[in-house]
Fold:
Amino acid sequence: MMKTWQAGKRLLPMTAALGLILAGCGREDLSVLRPQGPAAESSFDLMKLSITIMIVVLLIVFSIAAYVLVRFRRKPDQREIPEQVEGSFKLEVLWTVIPLILVVVLAVPTVKAVFAAGNDHSNDKNAIKVKVTGHQYWWEFQYTDYGVTTAQDLVIPAGKDIAFELSTKDVLHSFWVPSLSGKMDTNPDGTTNRFSFSAPNEGVYRGKCAELCGPSHGFMEFKVKSVSEAEFEKWVKSMKSPAVLPEDPALAETFKSQCLTCHAVGDMPDLSSAPNLTGIGSRESVAGILLNDDTGVDGEPVLENLKTWLHDTPGVKPGNKMPDPKKDMGLSDEEIDGIAEFLAGYTLD
Amino acid sequence: MDWITTVDHKKIAILYLWAGGLFFGIGGLEAILIRIQLIKPMNTFLDAQTFNELITMHGTTMIFLGVMPVIFALMNAVIPLQIGARDVAFPFLNALGFWTFLFGGVLLNLSWIMGGAPDAGWTSYTPLSTIEYSGTHGVDFYTIGLQIAGLGTLIGGINFLATIITMRAPGMSFMRMPMFVWASFITSAIILFAFPAITVGLVLLTFDRILGANFFDTSAGGNSVLWQHIFWIFGHPEVYILILPAFGIISEVIPTFARKRLFGYSSMVFATILIAFLGFMVWAHHMFTTGLGPVANALFSVSTMLIAVPTGIKIFNWLFTMWGGQVRFTSPNLFAVGFIPTFTMGGVTGVMLASAPADFQFHDTYFVVAHFHYVIVGGLVLGLFAGLHYWWPKMFGRMLSETLGKWTFWTFIIGFHLTFFVQHFLGLMGMQRRVFTYLPNQQFDLLNLISTVGAGLMGVGMLIFLTNIFLTSRKPADAPDDPWEDGRTLEWAIPSPPPEYNFKQTPLVRGLDAFWKEKTSGHKTMTPAEPVGPIHMPSATILPFLMSVGIFIAGLGFMFSRDDFGNAFMGFMFNHYLVTAIGLVITFGSMLLRSLYDDHGWHIEPEELEGR
Ligand code: HEM
Ligand SMILES: [Cu+2]
Structure:
């Protein structure tokens, strides 16, 4: 035990240097190499350790290979036959034992981290419990203790442990926020998974589905929004306020009869066959992939995105299960634009 | 006709080679299309559904139909020669194995033109692969096509086991067998134990899809994670089925071109066996994120890391084989030498993946894509190239062009590293695998572009190789018996290409590297172990081909048994399983014929042998 630690310690300077180099790679809100929470950091530490060991191994193999290839090339005048060596017991033991030691150096912290990661917070009173359900191709988040359901944007208080319970309504998906934590599959009922992570720093993080789930698998994205505790409480409260409908009664009727058969808003009962739309004007994205950005750098303003979505659902997300408003529900362009405007204005205070 | 009825292992090797080449080409084209789609963010070159079909077929084709037959080609061409045998143990079965493999592969690829290719990934995880979420016949083509092709592989594996156990020349003890024969032997043993698992899995999935069973349906009491276990209990050993023959090839090529015997032969044998054994113990490392819990994850983590030990032994033994030798950079040896660092890089990322908490991040990202391509392409395909360039003169009697061989090597390996090295970083930066496109501004764009350019360069390398084959085939077949001059094993002691009966007289083996031993003690040929006498040969027969045609028809019939054809005759034929029955009658009829009609084969007489 002592020995392995010593070996690990000698690798430390290189680990640190590597860490610095790798930390330059990718976006802070997305990259595995720029961890923003303890769960991702624990994975990252193991990665640095293993990359260091592996680079050492590679350097040894590459240098022996280079030396051999240069030193022992056949020269044009060489005729004599080289000595036919059987092998060398000592050498062979050497390269059995050294890899074994390296494996132990990696295995010990691995096993520790495995058990640390298995330590879920589902019985922790201070943790926020969230039921995550994967659907083709959107994410549903139920806050069981608060009676709140939302979709696509997971809002969490910074620094608190979030205890997840993961399952799927259809095929397998995998819940992954690279900069906050490793991924976990959402399995059908009966094989529900639990795990937890926390996001100490406020900010928005990009989440992805990591298990092939159909044509729009690549578009099954979501956002994790880490906010202050006060802001979180405020968010919960406004999520629970009564449902809002369009002011124009005709439009309200269309919205109710066409959209609310699947979607829910405000305090309505949630049937979960489609994403909850409460406060959709305040979301980070429409459908998970049309990023709301008034500056137009990363996406379009939310109104534009809602129009894009409602005018061409199958085009935006191939194979998604929402009927096309125009073709399947018979809405006119004006009605669609009206509903888009209403939804864009449906914000949380 | 000659080719359809042949039972000669050397001709079957060539059949395997062409069939493998064909499927490899199809898989390669699919790969290029995939890379073109990913060249830039939000590309619309392919649609999402087509993309998923392409990745599924690319993976399935490459693993089952592309590289496996090329491995079998080399095993068929070389094993009997290296052990001093006149054929494999069961020549009839050998032909049957090839034809079932080919018809399985053809059936799978028919899906492109018969209404939808499989689209649930080469792993076909349930429930995505069930009829509810994959409604075309695509996955049926996958289950039934692979079932038929797998039958061929299993037959082939058993045949090699029997051949190696029973048909070695006098004096060739197990510890005198060439390393390639050892590797093939262990590979065949893995096939024997791993393929039944996928066979069962495919049957269960077929039943779920076609007969409405519920093995994998959670809502009806099944278990969807069960498929993952069955698949990987087969799937992980499968990757060793692929890589061990490459290890064998490298262990033949390097000693030849270093003019030295293999360093640490017995530890190589031991390491091979150990790898095979551990290969069966680590399947759940593909399932760390499935939620097996910390105990399982810890156990599978550590057992997976252990594979690094025997693999490391091999790498250092190869390096020390060259140490003190006289290394020649012929094209086969270039590939072998290129294999060592490339495969090592794939191996070390394997160890990284084995650390479960880190794999929570790596899993299902481009990091994994990079890892297994380093192993399969950087390891196996480089190994196959080495083997093909090395044994080509023995198989065809013609030397491939060295110049073109070197061009192939450099374009291929540079293209390879361009394509896959950057993918490690893509994965770490948050790009999942199996996505048909990605949003811009995630810093994925440049690396994906580089990757696609690299794939194009690999394609160029393949084209140069094909040109080499084409130009070579037009030259006269005049390769010497021992074209590399330093051949060590038995195959170099006989003409290139070998006569139908391989050895006029079975050779006497007096040590490891039998031919080299004779050469260094001043002999030009092997010492025979028997006088010249009549040689018994098996007869050519069309029955293996017919049996496979029957299975092929039965498979199609079963697959469409529930379809509504809107045509009374077709409906009648399919819905009453009549097509299936016809296929089975052909197959079993051929079997009956085979058992009723006693064929004793024929003999080549000594006069004829001397006359040549
Ligand atoms: C020797 C030949 C090898 C081949 C052909 C091979 C091939 C593969 C393939 C195809 C996958 C991807 C599975 C998928 O997600 O579809 C994979 C994953 C993996 N391989 Fe290997 N591999 C080899 C060696 C190794 C070695 C030596 C190790 C470890 C010492 C290893 C460890 C892993 C692990 C842990 C995964 C799972 C990664 C994940 O799914 O996240 N492999 N390998
Ligand atoms: Cu997905």
